[in-house]
Design goal:
Blueprint (H helix, E strand, L loop, with lengths): L2 H28 L2 E6 L7 H12 L10 E6 L7 H10 L4 E5 L2 H10 L5 E5 L19 E5 L6 H11 L5 E6 L6 H14 L3 E6 L3 H14 L3 E4 L3 H5 L1 H10 L4 E3 L2 H5 L4 E5 L1 H16 L15 E6 H6 L6 H6 L2 E3 L1
Parallel strand pairs: 1-2, 1-3, 3-4, 4-5, 6-7, 6-8, 8-9, 9-10, 11-12
Antiparallel strand pairs: 10-11
Helix pairs in contact: 2-11, 3-4
Amino acid sequence: MKRRDFITAFLGGATTLSAWALAARAQQAAMPVIGFLDRGSPVGMESNLAGFHKGLAESGYTEGKNVVIEYRWAQNQAARLPALAAELVHLPVAVIAATRSSTPAQSAKAATSTIPIVFQTGGDPIKDGLVASLNRPGGNLTGATRLTTELVSKRLGVLLQVAPKATTIGMIVNPNGVQADIQVQEMQEAARLSGLKLYVVRASNDRELGEAFATFAQSGADALIEGSDPFFLDRRKQIVALTLSHKIPTIFFERDSVVDGGLMTYSANFADSFRQVGAYVGRILKGEKPADLPVLQPTKFDLIINLKTAKLIGLTIPPTLLALADEVIE
């Protein structure tokens, strides 16, 4: 082959390669982009993310095939959320999934009034200022709630099965939490109906957490209920360690604490809640509007028991309760 012919062939091939690369980039750019904003880290999120992808698949979306997902993790530093939400808005993304508490959704809401936001929270989305009502959210937000507050009294019933002789129940809440007063009211009524004394301690920093457990010991609390609040999520290992050192039977409001050594939890199924979020994200990508999609409530609930922890604190779990457990950690 002559040098001129070789150069021509080479340049023609390069042009073909360049065109192919541009076409590939254009195809990727044509894919809708989902922003995923979470208050924590991806550690331990495998089942939740699987649920989210399952929900997306219900509308025919698969990450990397016909949709792109941009993940932003706040690493349990709530102060980072506004900047991370702004990043997603400026990309831009077609929809934002804001998960595991109201704070990511609030940050996303502050960052945009036009991009659809699908939240996943344990609190009351109306009282958290996310939607106008559950049936008709209005605005650019909708999502799923895990009804964490409404489960407070049910957690007491589960806890009494492992501490049937309890007369005094301790409850720890974050006084700065939006749902603190409501949760205390729910527990006061539940304790009254069960003929129990309720001892509430408030803690909003590390020092107060340590003091809270000393107070529970002095008050003679036989068992403990953890109030639902992101502050406790961020310090779950510290709280679990305190429950173990004081050997106080404790029921937590979410699964991660039990995986980290806490005794038990009764809560909405997180993976299914993430599936609900993924399903709504897919429907919005198909053209539906958040304002027309009612806030979803949980359909599955999990009782999770850490049997190893029960043995460490000298507690026997009734066989009837073990039989009801959705997951037993040994």
